[in-house]
């Protein structure tokens, strides 16, 4: 595979995980590749749908940043597109949904990966810079709560219990497992979760705490889901949350906790995400494309290629593909340059695939 033309960059959150802080969104440190996934970047027998463009003649650069949740899908698209358009350089970063939108609305990137819809304040920032965008759903995710396999006491958590763990008032107060349930061990509770620039953090806090962007502060934070998965896999007393694809990739080192939203305990699986029973932690995930960037043939071809093959790449990245109708509606949005968001801004808690389809078909 032609990886030489795909350049990975990040905001070095690796060095700042413990305190949950990050660098300026304009920082561009030395490139580092992502960890290798067990899922193939491209099935050799996959039948790709190609845009009506001579991809081999394309040249230029595509800058992408944002969500680590969406990263595995976009990475696969970038690798496959790079095979077909070897003279196009793709710069792919992971600074979190919020950090990605900061760069996107400052005109620094062409495409922003996002694990939640764009917020109104981000829409306003883009408008202030004269940037219009096209919103494209690419897959469905089940945000997964996980523990170490040697954790023998947690099988299911209620939303109220998760709230007890993660609410702001839990800071430096709810620090042991037996404070959640008296029969659980009187051992330290180690929490791992998305950093504040992450759309996963916004969604989780909205769904569990009841207010977007509000939580306890004394947990290990990162915008890099790979790091969070590895942290929990190494900590018998740990509990963390991140996108379903990262749980699926590390399933031999982690155990998913079922969630009880009042209808009984439901674990995250492709089936429960598709049928809408895994709530309130199922959600759509997106890319956002600058409308003016579509005037460049390499970006227009890349976006069409992404959407036309969205179901295949989502499945390869271990996410839940959307119905083909949604991808067709997304492609229409690209072709017609339909800008703006169909959402009111921010996280959409409890949204099902069927409800997303209704929104997209407006």
UniProtKB/TrEMBL annotation:
It comes from the Bacteria. GO terms for molecular function: phosphate ion binding. PROSITE patterns: PROKAR_LIPOPROTEIN. GO terms for biological process: phosphate ion transport. CDD domains: PBP2_phosphate_like_2. Residues 58-307 form the PBP domain. InterPro entries: PBP_domain, Phos-bd, Phosphate_ABC_transporter. Keywords: Phosphate transport, Signal, Transport. Involved in the system for phosphate transport across the cytoplasmic membrane. Belongs to the PstS family. NCBIfam families: ptsS_2 (TIGR02136). This is Phosphate-binding protein. It comes from Chloroflexus aurantiacus (strain ATCC 29366 / DSM 635 / J-10-fl). The lineage of its organism: Bacteria, Bacillati, Chloroflexota, Chloroflexia, Chloroflexales.
């Amino acid at each position: 595979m032609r990886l030489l033309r795909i350049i990975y960059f990040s905001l070095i959150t690796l060095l700042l995980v413990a305190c949950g802080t990050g660098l300026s969104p304009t920082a561009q440190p030395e490139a580092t590749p992502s960890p290798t996934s067990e899922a193939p970047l491209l099935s050799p027998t996959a039948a790709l749908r190609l845009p009506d463009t001579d991809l081999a003649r394309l040249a230029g650069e595509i800058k992408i940043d944002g969500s680590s949740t969406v990263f595995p899908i976009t990475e696969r698209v970038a690798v496959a597109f790079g095979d077909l358009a070897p003279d196009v350089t793709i710069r792919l970063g992971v600074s979190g949904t919020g950090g990605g939108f900061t760069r996107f609305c400052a005109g620094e990137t062409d495409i922003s990966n996002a694990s939640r819809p764009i917020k109104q304040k981000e829409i306003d920032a883009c408008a202030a810079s004269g940037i219009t965008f096209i919103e494209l759903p690419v897959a469905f995710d089940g945000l997964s709560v996980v523990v170490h396999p040697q954790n023998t006491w947690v099988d299911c958590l209620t939303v109220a219990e998760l709230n007890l763990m993660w609410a702001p008032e839990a800071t430096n107060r709810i620090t042991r497992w037996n404070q959640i349930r008296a029969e659980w061990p009187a051992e330290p509770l180690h929490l791992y979760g998305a950093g504040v620039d992450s759309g996963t953090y916004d969604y989780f806090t909205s769904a569990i705490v009841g207010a977007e962007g509000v939580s306890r502060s004394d947990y290990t934070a990162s915008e890099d889901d790979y790091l969070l998965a590895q942290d929990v896999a190494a900590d018998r007393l740990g509990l963390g949350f991140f996108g379903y694809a990262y749980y699926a990739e590390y399933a031999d080192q982690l155990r998913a906790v079922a969630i009880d939203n009042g209808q009984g305990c439901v674990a995250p699986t492709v089936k429960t995400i598709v049928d809408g029973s895994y709530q309130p932690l199922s959600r759509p995930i997106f890319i956002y494309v600058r409308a003016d960037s579509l005037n460049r043939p390499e970006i227009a071809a890349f976006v069409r290629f992404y959407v036309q093959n969205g179901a295949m790449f989502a499945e390869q990245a271990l996410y839940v593909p959307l119905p083909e109708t949604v991808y067709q509606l997304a492609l229409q949005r690209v072709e017609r340059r339909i800008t703006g968001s169909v959402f009111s801004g921010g996280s959409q808690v409890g949204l099902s695939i069927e409800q997303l389809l209704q929104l997209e078909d407006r």
